[in-house]
Design a protein that fits this description.
Blueprint: H1 8-19, H2 25-38, H3 52-64, H4 69-88, H5 109-112, H6 120-133, H7 135-147, H8 151-155, E1 162-163, E2 168-171, E3 174-176, E4 179-181, E5 189-192, H9 195-207, H10 226-240, H11 250-261, H12 266-273, H13 278-285, H14 294-303, H15 329-345
Antiparallel strand pairs: 1-2, 2-5, 3-4
Helix pairs in contact: 1-2, 1-4, 3-4, 6-7, 6-10, 7-11, 12-13
């Protein structure tokens, strides 16, 4: 195939054209912004002359500019997908973006300095603060904090989706880019409601019985805009004296982390969150989950029985030495090792 201008800019534009019908409008706009703004330093480079070192240096610059690790990974995906087209056209023999970031993007979440979940005390302070400064939005934040719904899923709720008698809601759609769409997994799920959320929903129904959407704007008759929610989140954080590192999605992380730390079954948390597999839940929230089972380790004491000793003899480790004090097994082995070394020296 003849390519008149085999630059990275040309191939990134071609990739955007191919990706547009396969992704959501918001995702496409994010990709387009990455290509237009962040690929600029490499845009005019001939793809045949581009090296893995060039890509790695470009990614390192983004990290030095304090972009989030997840964002830099998306940048790597964009440039790799663009170069994959050049590989298909036989202009290059390999995709130099593959492996260019080896070892570079493995920093932990703690290294990023960004907290994703609130503590229980911070959550209470936020809910009180946002109720004081943004009372109309406080119900939405309470729902998200008590159910783990994504912001788009909460905005996409309609009254027929709610069953207050059974204390559950059916999540069947998400609201994004001023339009409704399927959930992230493409499947519907049921989510349990706490008593506090049920009371809030009952009161909200009495106040707005004719609305289609639970969180509906009286001007547009559609759910609230995402930017409106983000402004409410910042106002609540400021009122509670909390850092602005938290965002609406942080309430989902907080929901999962608090439940897992409290010891509730991770299988149920997975169902509430709508993850496809329990492995995904463990991957994201594994740092908050450490299963403990003391009876299991105690059961080993029953099967690992010590060998019988002659009458009147004491075990030097399990029963203690002549002084009656138990000696650690490591100390016994260390002394034996010392004695064997002394014998060899003699």
């Amino acid at each position: 195939m003849d390519v008149p201008d085999p630059t990275l800019a040309e191939y990134s534009r071609r990739w955007l054209h191919l990706a547009r019908p396969r992704v959501r409008p918001g995702t496409y706009r994010a990709y387009e912004s990455m290509v237009r703004v962040h690929l600029a330093p490499l845009a005019d480079r001939d793809v045949r002359m581009l090296t893995a070192h060039d890509v790695r240096d470009w990614l390192t610059e983004r990290l030095d500019e304090r972009y989030a690790l997840r964002f830099v990974r998306l940048l790597l995906y964009v440039i790799s997908a663009s170069l994959e087209l050049a590989l298909t056209d036989d202009l290059v023999t390999k995709n130099v973006a593959r492996g260019a970031a080896r070892g570079l993007l493995r920093r932990s979440r703690e290294d990023d300095g960004v907290r994703k979940a609130m503590t229980r005390e911070e959550l209470v302070a936020f809910l009180i603060g946002v109720r004081a400064v943004r009372p109309k939005q406080a119900d939405l934040f309470l729902l998200m904090a008590r159910t783990g719904l994504r912001p788009g899923e909460a905005l996409g709720l309609q009254w027929p989706d709610v069953d207050l008698e059974r204390r559950q809601i059916r999540v069947v759609r998400t609201w994004s880019d001023r339009r409704g769409g399927p959930t992230k997994s493409g499947r519907a799920r049921y989510v349990d409601l706490s008593q506090q959320v049920v009371r809030m929903m009952e009161q909200r129904w009495l106040e707005t019985p004719r609305q289609t959407w639970i969180f509906e704007s009286p001007l547009t008759r559609h759910p609230w805009d995402r930017s409106h929610i983000q402004r409410g989140m910042r106002a609540g954080l400021d009122a509670a004296g909390l850092p602005r590192c938290f965002h609406p999605h942080s309430l989902r992380h907080t929901f999962a982390s608090l439940l897992i730390e409290a010891g509730w079954p991770i299988q149920w948390v997975q169902q509430q969150l709508g993850h496809r597999s329990i492995a995904m839940t463990v991957d994201i929230y594994g740092s908050a989950w450490r299963a403990r089972n003391l009876p299991a380790v105690d059961s080993l004491d029953d099967v690992m029985r010590r060998p019988p000793l002659p009458a009147g003899h004491r075990h030097p480790v399990l029963d203690g030495d002549a002084s009656g004090e138990a000696r650690p097994q490591r100390t016994v082995r260390f002394r034996r090792l010392q004695q064997s070394r002394v014998r060899r020296l003699r």
